[in-house]
Structure formats: structure tokens, C-alpha cells
Amino acid sequence: MTKQLILGAFEEFTPNFIGNSWHHPRANTSGFASLGFWTDMVRKLDAAGFDFFFVAEAIGYPMNDEGEVPEAVIREAVQFPVHDPLAIMSALGAAAPRIGLVATASTTAQQPLLNARTFTTLDHLTGGRIGWNIVTSDNQQALVRLLGRTQVTPHDERYAAAEEFVDLDLELWEGAWDDDALRADKAARVFADPAKVHRIRRDGRYFRFDGYFPATPSPQRTPVLFQAGTSEAGTSFAARFAECVFVQDRNAGRLAGTIAKLRAKAVAAGRPADSVKIVNGSSFVIAETDAEAQRLRAELDATPTREATAALFLGWSGVDLGRLDPAATLDDVSTEVGQTMLALWRNPDGTSPTIGDILDSLPSTFGGMKFTGTAASVADQVAAFVETTDIDGFLVENWYGGADGYTEFTDLLMPVLRERGLLPATPRTGTLREMLTGTGSPRLPDWHPGARYRRG
Ligand SMILES: Cc1cc2nc3c(=O)[nH]c(=O)nc-3n(C[C@H](O)[C@H](O)[C@H](O)COP(=O)(O)O)c2cc1C
Q1: What's the whole-model pTM score?
Q2: Domain CATH for 93
Q3: Closest ligand 1 atom, CA of 155?
Q4: Residues 93-136: pLDDT tens digits?
Q5: CA distance 307 to 325
Q6: How far away, in angstroms, is 87 Cα from ligand 1 center?
Q7: Angle at the Cα of 445 from the Cα atoms of 443 and 447, rounded to 5 degrees
Q8: Protein residue with its CA nearest to atom 30 in ligand 1
Q9: Looking at the domain assignment, is residue 39 inside a domain?
């Protein structure tokens, strides 16, 4: 049976993200700090039938272990400037009536109670359309240099702390208030029934809590839980907690392996294989002819500089390629930062190109899967990719910046995908969880570890 794809848009609150093409003649990103820039984009994607709009978060900007920031970061807008994604979510919800809204928050940088309160607030304000992309953060130096931590927590320990963080938030969302605790009974002068609002106590290795959760239950209670990071520890974490996983691979065979592993780990964790929805970051260049699409792709590949993409790579992986021996390979490199990122630059057979080759290829290889052609040929490529990988949907990378960056995708490709049954005939509706899971319930599914905190 043809899978009906999930569609998200991949943005960061910065002039232009993955493509680093803010300086391309077609890009129009100077107003990125204004609300109108984002509401125009979200309204367009909502009307076209996208399921969600995702805004990534950088807790810092690319810097190496010594705290040095490559000059290209400031000069060429490499995740700099970057603004706060959570701050715009409620305004986007007010601007667009249907689309889901997903923002990243880091378990390494944030604090469990305040994080839970923020997402509950946003779930109320968006009518149950909020999702949390859980990351342990790619930029670890920022924690030490900018946020005052004394040291970088080792990679796998960050995931252990993330489990504790998320588990506490789950109890706050699911277990702190009974469904009928909120009475707002004027005659009895009872706003909330103290017997039905529960004190939560935790004395964990990383987080402590002793008190009440002061935010009332929202339509989904727990935001839809997304996760990104496919290291061994990352996939184990996702298998327990994530309802949707972000990946960003450009090789179908390798991605098929990642997806099979994720689904197997999900089953081992006691949940159905298809209960984890996996969406792949991908760029789409679509034109009236294949030749024109190829020309536009070549132009985009040539748009970012080597320095800008090397800085992006540093920010995501923690590896400063420019300081390594160009003849060395990734076999000579390890990172306590983004392990997924390094794995993506290996050859599909697991061997590694040289550092020099990686640097040369970065401007044209950055980002996830690249689809190029007419709408009909891209729809063929998409169908084949879904067949090979078992992917559930796409996180569409905006390669020009601004609302216009999606025009060919929404106007040329989406009608063809719909005709072929690869998209629902009409856009999905309901809470974000209902849109993504199709279970008909806004609440966490029973298999989820958070479900055990429900009372009554
Ligand atoms: C599609 C996608 C989106 C991501 N968004 C963020 C983000 O917003 N903030 C962040 O710090 N890391 C982000 N990452 C990076 C990872 O979530 C993760 O923090 C990093 O890769 C380290 O984990 P790992 O070693 O398991 O890969 C993203 C990765 C992918 C594939």
C-alpha cells in the first residue's frame, strides 16, 4: 500500500540555515527577525497541507574546542545571528489555524520544570499543536563558554541525563493533575481540587524535584515528542521516548539500515515498529524541465563557500576540519559532540574519504537527501526512496530562505504527490499527535513510558 507521507518544514530562526544562501539573488531573508517573515511562511505551508513547521535551535554558534569562532560564522551568517524559536511559536499558532508547530529544546541546556511549563503553555496557546524536538545539543562548547558550565558532559552521559529529564517532564505532564482536578467552581470557591493535584518527588542522579506542577493540563498534555541524533545512544533513547525521529541522510541504502535499526529497537522497547515516525531532512529543486532543475541545483551547490559549510560542519559535529591534516580520514577523528554528523560523511560502505575531500565536497553535500527534476520525475524519485528506505515523510529544507523558498514544492510537487496517493487527499487535521499518529487521540499512546504516570 502506498504510504501517505508526513511533511514538515525545516527552519532555524536565522536568515538562512542549511543552504547558507541568504546572498543568492532569489533569497529574501533580510526581514528574518520580524514576525511577518515567519507568519507568511507558516500560513503558506498551512494552506498547502504541510503537517508541521519545525524550528531548530542552536544554543550557541559554531566554535571549536578552544572556543575559537571561525570568521565565516559572523561574516557569512552561519547560524549567527540566531534567535529564540520558542518565542515565536504561539504567534505562529495564532497566524495559521491547522499546521503543527515543533521547536527544539535541549535537555543539556534547559531545566525540566521550566521546559515542561513552556511546552504546556504552548500546547494550550496552539490548541494542541505543539511538538518538542528533544536534543542533547550538538554545540557542547557553547555550554561551557556561554552558559557557564564547568565541563562538557560526555556524549553517552548526556543521553542518560536526557532520559531522566524527559521522564520527570512526563510525570509532570501526565501525572501531576487528574483530568477533573480543575473545577473553576465559583459557588464553592474551588478553582482546583487540592486532592487531585499531586506532589511529585524525584531525587535523581541529574535532576531533583519536590513540588507541584503549576500549569494546567493542555490538550495533548505531553507535547508530541520528536528526537534527532542517531548515534547508538541516540537511537536507544528514541526507541523509548520518540514518537517522531528526525534523520538527515542522503544515501538510501544507509538510511534504510538506520530506519530498520530504529524500528527494531522500538519493538525491543515494547512498542509497534510503525509507532516511530521517521522523517528525513531533504532538499527539493523542481523546475519545468529536468535540464533547468539540474542547472538550479548546480547553482545552489555553488552558492555557499567552503568556509561557511566547514563552519556549519563544526557547529553540528564539534570537528574543526580546517585544523586537521587534509590527508587524514574520519578514522583518525572522534567526537563527544555530534556523532550522527560524522557518520554521514563516511562512504556508504563505511570507509572514510580524506578530510581534504570532505572539505572540497561540503558546499555541495551539506544537508540531507537531494531531489532534483520536474515534479513528475521528483515524485518518481520520492516513491522509489520511500520504497527503499521505509521512511515515513520528509523534513523539507528551505534552500533559498523566506516563504518563496517553498513555492515549487507546494505548487508543483505537492499536487503530483497527492494525485499519486503519496499525500492525503485533504490535509490532516486535529492535534499534532492526531495528525502524525492517526490514532484519533490527542493523548500519549499506551505503549509510551509516560502513559504509566496517568492516574484514574
Ligand atoms: C533534522 C535534524 C534536526 C536537528 N536539530 C537540532 C537542533 O535543533 N538543535 C541541536 O542542538 N541539534 C539538532 N540536531 C542534532 C542532533 O539532534 C544531536 O543533538 C546531535 O546530532 C548529537 O547527537 P548524536 O551524537 O546522537 O548525533 C538535529 C539533527 C537533525 C538530523
Answers
A1: 0.96
A2: 3.20.20.30
A3: 25
A4: 999 999 999 999 999 999 999 999 999 999 999 999 999 999 98
A5: 16
A6: 20
A7: 150
A8: 228
A9: yes
